Amino acid sequence: MFVGYVRVSKNDGSQTLEPQRDALIAAGVEPIRIYEDLASGRKDDRPGLNACLKALQPNNTLVVWKLDRLGRDLKHLVTTVDELRARNIGLKVLAGAGAQIDTTTANGRLFFGIFAALAEFERELIAERTYAGLAAARARGRKGGRPPRKMDRATVMMAMVAMADPKTNAAEVARRLDITTTTLYAYVRCHRVALRRVAWPISAARSPRR
Fold first, then answer.
1. Is 75 helix (H, G, I), strand (E, B) or coil?
2. What is the gyration radius of the CA atoms in the chain, in angstroms?
């Protein structure tokens, strides 16, 4: 089944979707299965595209007029096409530089494979840059990764009350607080030490002198 997507960059009437819609209908896409956006390709929020991608099912084919109608930029385009391939969804481009892409043909499947290779290359580059950044940070005496989450006194007290119940799972408490179990126990331990330090001089002052 064909599902279509059309987009123009301006919604002031200077551009129209009709030429794209006509081309998709001529290619066999039913009008009710055409999704549209009136937005710049660089905008993250494109409800028409989001709805289109959500509606696509395995063995469907996404049809677009030109390749630049689909992606915000090359990186987004490569990622989107690779996600379509992973979901077993085809792609057909009717005009422009990407008109060779039609996954119902051998040449089109070859282009799909090239996009998959580009996506893998991009992922490897991101991983390589991340590892290099962490290594550089460690060399300067800094540790990489997510910064520790701070818990205020009220949150620690609530966690301690919850953990006082024998039925409470510490891992579940930590998960709800978005911290590790080790961090949770460290906060609780430090808070108990602080409470004992406060309580000791008070109890010493109240104890009768002999």
1. helix
2. 29
- At residue 204 the predicted structure's pLDDT band, cuts being 50, 70 and 90, is very low
Decide: 42 and 73 in contact? Cβ < 8 Å.
yes
Q: Average per-residue pLDDT in the chain?
A: 76
- Sheet containing 34-38: give its strands across: 34-38, 2-8, 61-64, 90-93
Q: Give the DSSP letter of residue 58.
A: T
Residues annotated as catalytic (active site), given as ranges: 9
Listed in sequence order, the residues at least 6 apart from 113 whose beta carbon sits closer than 8 Å to its beta carbon are none
As separate numbers, helices (DSSP H) first and strands (DSSP E) second, the chain gives: 7, 4
Report CA 57 to chain centroid distance, whole Å.
20
What is the amino acid identity at position 11? N
CA geometry: angle at 61 spanning 106 and 100, to 5°? 40
Domain 2-124, architecture per CATH: 3-Layer(aba) Sandwich (3.40)
With 90 as the cut, is the pLDDT of residue 60 above it?
A: yes
pTM: 0.53
CB atoms within 10 A of CB 118: 17
